[in-house]
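Lab notes, practical 5.
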Amino acid sequence: MDKVPMTVRGEKLLRDELEVLLKRRPLISKAIGEARELGDLKENAEYHAAREEQGICEAQIRDIEYKLSVAQVIDVTKMTNTGKVIFGTTVTLIDVNTDDEVKYQIVADDEASIKEGRISVNSPIARGLIGKMAGDEVNIQTPGGTKEFEIEAVDYI
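Output from the prediction step:
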């Protein structure tokens, strides 16, 4: 089974979500029991709704437990900063054509949020940056065309 990289932050978020779901389990079971007492199960909407909620909750628990079981948690804060772009690093880029500055952290697919400055390790930008060094210029093929960036800084934060 291949390990999937995950940041410390991503692992914590999954563990927190799992904890919430595990606390919901007994509440859902109680709701099923109460609905069962209402009588005929064939036409009991409360019972069917509670059973559906239980199924969704159990599927989410299985999904999170699987993700955690295959996760390889990478904590870049404990690594020596060599200036090389790797999974988990935060990269400051300068668009060579516009001088615009952007900052991205390279994270797992589930953690990616462009609004929060986190891009998937599988995104075109991240794939073009992995292995490069601070000071390098890179051409990255994006859906909007080729972009040229200079890697201004690589932070292990």
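Observations recorded by the TA: The first strand starts at residue 4 and ends at 7. The chain is about 40% helix and 25% strand.
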